[in-house]
Amino acid sequence: MENYTLTYDDGVKGFPSFYTYYPDWMIGMNNYFYTFKEGELYRHNTNETRNNYYGADYASIMTSVFNDEPLTNKIFKTLALESDDSWDTRVNSDQQLGNFIGADDYIIKEGGYFGYLRAANSNPASSAQYPLRSANGIGSNVSVDVTNPAAVQINFSTTPFVNIGTILSIGDLIYTKIGASVTLIGEVTNRVEDIQNGDNYLVVDTTITNPPNDPLGIPIGNLPPISPVYYFFIKNGTAESHGILGHYAVFTLTNNNTSAIELFAVESEVMKSFP
After folding, report:
1. Which of 1, 25, 246, 256 is deepest in the core (most CB within 10 A)?
2. For 163-176, what is each residue's pLDDT tens digit?
3. Which CATH architecture has domain 127-234?
4. Phi and psi (nearest 5°) for 32?
5. Helix/strand/coil (H, E, C) string of 104-120?
6. Residue 112 neighbours by CB under 8 Å, 6+ apart
7. Rounded to whole angstroms, how far apart are CA atoms 119 and 242?
8. CB 69 within 8 A of CB 268
9. Other CB atoms within 10 Å distance of the CB of residue 27
10. Contact 118, 238 (CB under 8 A)
11. How far apart are CA 193 and CA 196, in angstroms?
12. Among the listed residues 2, 9, 49, 47, the one whose alpha carbon sits nearest the alpha carbon of residue 28
């Protein structure tokens, strides 16, 4: 459990801020702010270093919300920071969680930092995400070769022709649907569509893990059934993202800079979502 310092402002009769550093005691005296930590006395704001307390670096974190017209479903497309530094940004709406703009994803436009909101690429996609992501049907296969789990070959008919479709790309995720049951099979690594020679198949890696940088490597792929079933694919959630859907958007900005920076305003380009 993380510890935070919560401050009370008698002027507003409330608690305006959390602080990530955790002193044993605090006191204001002679226009200076002092804290005690493990028996040591510290006087704050005496040098130019920011985000450093008791020899450890911390982050500046700010959370706020876009909530104009709360009854209107909207698409939040961008964020613009009137700041002299970029901030790592995480955005959640009431309908989509885990969206982001990395600090390195911002570009400088007209003196400010500008970035496009990206949806988190949750694997496997939950059923609640299907309406928010590009799910595309392929059809039923005719056979499958599961000899190599890292290169499963899923064969589709050439007569009649089952069109895999040009929307599918290497890296998309393949699912099966049996009744109401949806199963993630794996990630597309190759597609072959040579109808004259009777080839119409996908090569799928069923050994994928989630998330990619998880040191535990938790498997999420599954070998498909031998009998023919219905297949569909879902595009990469981050690559295809066109904004964040929701009635409101809560954004959290994080900055680890140890020098003085200024954040003046945060703006978002928002449009009404029509069903």
Report:
1. 246
2. 998 889 898 889 99
3. Beta Barrel (2.40)
4. -125, 155
5. HHCEEECCEEEEECECC
6. 80, 81, 82, 83
7. 8
8. no
9. 11
10. yes
11. 9
12. 9
pTM for the whole thing? 0.67
Q: Where are the domains of the chain?
A: 5-58, 69-119+241-272, 127-234
For 235, counting Cβ atoms within 10 Å of its Cβ (0-12 exposed, 13-18 middle, 19+ buried), the class is buried
Placement of tokens 């309908």 in the chain? 95
CA-closest candidate to residue 130, choices 160, 157, 94, 95: 95
Tell me the residue length of the chain: 275
- Edge to edge, the sheet with strand 181-194 lists 135-140, 230-234, 173-178, 181-194, 199-205, 152-155, 143-145
Bin 271: left if φ > 0, else alpha if -120 < ψ < 50, else beta.
Answer: beta
Tokens of 90: 């995480």
